[in-house]
Design goal:
Elements lengths: L1 E6 L4 H9 L6 E6 L9 H11 L3 E4 L6 H6 L1 H22 L2 E7 L22 H16 L3 E6 L2 E2 L6 H11 L2 E5 L3 E2 L2 E2 H13 L6 E4 L6 E2 H12 L8 E5 L1 H4 L14 H7 L9 H13 L7 H4 L5 H19 L3
Parallel strand pairs: 1-2, 1-3, 3-4, 4-5, 5-10, 6-9, 7-12
Antiparallel strand pairs: 8-11
The structure holds NADP nicotinamide-adenine-dinucleotide phosphate.
NADP nicotinamide-adenine-dinucleotide phosphate binds next to helix 1, helix 4 and strand 4.
């Protein structure tokens, strides 16, 4: 058995790892909440990791409040930089490989073209800067690492764009969504599988990688697609309208256009492990889990769930979609 410690088990990716890890029978996964393993507490990390002696540590913890980081810079740095450094140091001490997630927000989004791993970082906000400093801590302290940069993470849990916009669409007659910021929505399930597969094959192809879905969307087109899937499950009578960033008077600068070039991860790891990239399949899976899965359906949404025949229709649609995708090449 390969022992894997998961840090930050109550976040989107952390929860997905806890939900799906039984697909990997060779992995002995020990998942810890913030209370059980606080990455800002060196003694806590040492005690846990020396006792568990894992081969891999997957860090799903982070300070992810982009707006909050502007006024809480110290907190963001304490978790995303200093804490990550402690983790890297202890992984070095026990010889464990650290798998860590970073973000598209380390870039300024001004590049004309897809971002490569060694493109120059230039974070526009404090969250992005704290994540970039975290990456530097890892690369400076411990060679055995995988830094997975990803973007626009969503899941069927609360606290992400898909969940929030769906709630708004169900309650409101119209929603305005930004149409001039582009990126690639990436499912927490796909990220969880990626991390577990790296552990499962005991990969030693260390380094920094870009991993996101095969999409290039703005938030408005993403919201529109969420609505198209959503109507198979719930009543939505809402118009989605585009709005440009300038009109929003946002308090935090965000990159306009970060699309990753994912060739490095495909070329390096793609031969050994399946990489899930298809954004439509991933989104449909997430929507299914949100509404039909037993996990977390908001009480107020439950009565809006449509009947089984509607669900069956959705299945057929997904099946057709999958067939089309299979035949695409
Ligand atoms: N969300 C995105 O769109 C996005 C995009 C690109 C990259 N990423 C990166 O992907 C990773 C996972 O993101 P996510 O969306 O899954 O995050 P998330 O849902 O916000 O979860 C983060 C988790 O970290 C935990 N945490 C915070 N401080 C901690 C500490 N000191 N010790 C231990 N755990 C602590 C939190 O615990 P509590 O539950 O107790 O607060 C929370 O469960 C992060 O590295 C993030 O930067 C995210």
């Amino acid at each position: 058995m390969i022992t894997v410690v998961v840090v930050g088990s109550q976040g989107q990716i952390g929860k997905e790892i806890s939900r799906i890890h039984t697909m990997f029978p060779e992995l002995n996964v020990l998942a810890y909440t913030r209370d059980e393993l606080d990455i800002t507490n060196m003694l806590n990390i040492k005690t846990r990791l020396i006792t568990d002696n894992p081969k891999y540590v997957i860090n799903c913890s982070a300070y992810t409040d982009v707006v909050g980081a502007e006024t809480n810079e110290d907190k963001a740095n304490e978790i995303n930089c200093e804490g990550v450094g402690y983790l890297a140091e202890v992984c070095g001490l026990i010889g464990a490989t650290l798998i860590h997630f970073s973000t598209d927000y380390i870039f300024d989004g001004m590049k004309d073209g897809y971002y490569l791993e060694d493109d120059k970082a230039n974070p526009l906000n404090k969250y992005g800067m704290s994540k970039y400093k975290g990456e530097e801590k890892i690369t400076g302290l411990h060679d055995k690492h995988f830094i997975i940069r990803t973007s626009w993470v969503y899941s069927h849990y609360e606290g992400n764009f898909v969940h929030t916009i769906l709630n708004k669409m169900i309650k409101d007659k119209s929603v305005k969504v930004v149409s001039d910021q582009y990126g690639s929505p990436t499912s927490a399930t796909d990220l969880a599988k990626l991390a577990l597969r790296i552990c499962d094959i005991e990969s030693d192809k260390y380094g920094t990688y870009h991993f996101s879905s095969n999409s290039n969307l703005n938030w408005y087109t993403f919201a529109d697609m969420i609505k198209r899937f959503g109507i198979y499950y719930v009543d939505i009578d809402c118009t989605v309208k585009p709005i440009i960033t300038k009109k929003l008077k946002a308090s935090v600068k965000r990159p306009y256009n970060v699309i990753f070039n994912c060739d490095k991860i495909i070329d390096t790891l793609g031969k050994d492990i399946e990489l899930d990239f298809d954004w439509l399949e991933s989104l449909s899976e997430s929507m299914y889990l949100r509404f039909k899965g037993k996990i977390e359906i908001d009480c107020e949404l439950q009565h809006l769930l449509k009947d089984e025949s509607t669900i069956a229709k959705l299945y057929r649609k997904i099946e057709n979609l999958e067939k089309r995708l299979e035949n695409r090449d």
